[in-house]
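Students often ask what a holo structure prediction actually looks like on paper. The answer is less mysterious than it sounds. You provide the chain, you provide the ligand, and the output is a string of discrete structure tokens encoding the 3D arrangement of the protein together with cobalt (II) ion.
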Amino acid sequence: MLNKKKKNIWRIPAGQEPTELDLRVMEAEKQGEIVPPRHLVKTPEQIEGIRRSGVVNTGVLDLVESQIRAGMSTAEIDRLVYDYTVSHGAIPAPLNYEGFPKSVCTSINEVVCHGIPSEYEFLEEGDIVNVDVSTILDGYFSDASRMFVIGKTTPRKQELVDVTLECLKAGAAAVKPWGHVGDIGRAIEPLARRHGFSVVRDLCGHGVGLEFHEDPEVDHYDTRRKGMLLVPGMVFTIEPMINMGVSDVFIDEEDGWTVVTEDELPSAQWEHTFLVTETGVEILTH
Ligand code: MF3
Ligand code: CO
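The corresponding structure tokens follow.
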């Protein structure tokens, strides 16, 4: 019988002196914390790259915001996203990602996320729609989404949209250097519940920057665990999906992508890409 113990995750590259940050993480790991592998802590150069990617990503969302209206097809939104992104020297990250056929996700009403734009799907007065934009610039990824209300919607759907944005803000406010990933969902879930809404558990935020989806997984509900230590230089999304009814979802078996609420009641989502700094948190997709 051989002794078992946890292998160290945090490793110093050969020939480098441990920095103050290295020493702090290694001490935390010794205390039993779940620490990120060192490569999840971005270098200043990588952060600049992700920041520049975020500028294009924000430009896409601003363009969509200025154009979106009743009667427009979701395929038209897709064309706006593709043309703007490519003309700014970037690539829409969703296009061909694991076979996704379009440049953006458009998710209307009971669609939670990953809706596929279509020539035959038109926005109607009263719809609430999530447009989820992800950009690759010079190899760096950014990811953000907004809700749009088409004309005027019902008070309850408007409340869902507004509370979901508050959930994103509450999650972001819970991010502290040397805090934990679990703080985020613990801040979000009670806020959603107070309004009678539920938090989707089957989908999460994620590390982002050098790839589309990196560690850590960022749950938006209270997992009752601390989760991974938040180290300055980590970059990840917070993207709560909040449902008017039950939290359960299913994937449409026809297209293999579209995620829908089990009770087919509306769902909303807002998303930003965040950088953990030495003093707090910075939004890279403003
Ligand atoms: N943008 C989504 C996210 O927030 C990912 C979409 S994957 C796609 O993680 F292929 F559907 F685009
Ligand atoms: Co995301």
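The chain has a mean pLDDT of 98.
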